[in-house]
Amino acid sequence: MTIMLRSSLAIAAGLLVATTAAAQTARPALDYASAAKIRDTCLDWASKNGKRMTVAVMDTHGMLVAYAHMDGASYQAGEVARWKATAASRFGRSTADLARLNPAANVPNVATIPGGLPIYTSAGVALGGVGVSGGKIDEDVACGTAGIAAAGLSADKPAS
Asked: How many Å apart are CA 80 and CA 90, to the nearest integer?
């Protein structure tokens, strides 16, 4: 009886594991290497252009993956970069696009200053967002765009 019970439990456990595993869907995620490439390329861009910037790279959940605050960048630039990255990563849109939606002022995590960009794979899978602050808004955007491109990713969701 004990052998039969053990066999039944083993089979049931095997079926449970197989059923659970099959229900999972693998998705690409922003890894540290890609986030660091985005950050480092943006820092190089800022240095070459004489800017003191802050760069924040977040995954789709708004978790910080890579961050840098250049010497001489303002404290506020760091706060704004994280705010922009949070908005771009959670909404999958640039902060310039979010501003065009004219959101209410009290909507949480909605940045409306350009310089936050979403990060997509070539297949259109959202990976997160980058936020850049410390330059003029067109410089923040250019810096973030350069970083995303250097990582082989896109700030634009491909058309379906």
From this structure: 15
Distance between CA atoms of residues 79 and 68, nearest Å: 12
Q: DSSP assignment of 2-36, as one string?
A: HHHHHHHHHHHHHHHHHHHHHT--------HHHHH
Scanning the chain, the segments in alpha helix (DSSP H) are: 2-22, 32-48, 75-91, 95-100, 137-150
> Which pTM was predicted?
0.83
User: pLDDT by residue (tens digit) across 111-147?
Assistant: 999 999 999 999 999 999 999 999 999 999 999 999 9
Structure tokens that stand for 149 in this block: 């491109």
136 Cβ contact list (under 8 Å, min separation 6): none
Is the distance from CB of 41 to CB of 147 less than 8 angstroms? yes
The Cα–Cα gap between 141 and 77 comes to 14
Please name the fold of domain 32-150.
Beta-Lactamase (3.30.450)
For residues 81-94, average pLDDT: 96
Sheet (strand 54-59) strand order: 64-69, 54-59, 126-133, 116-120
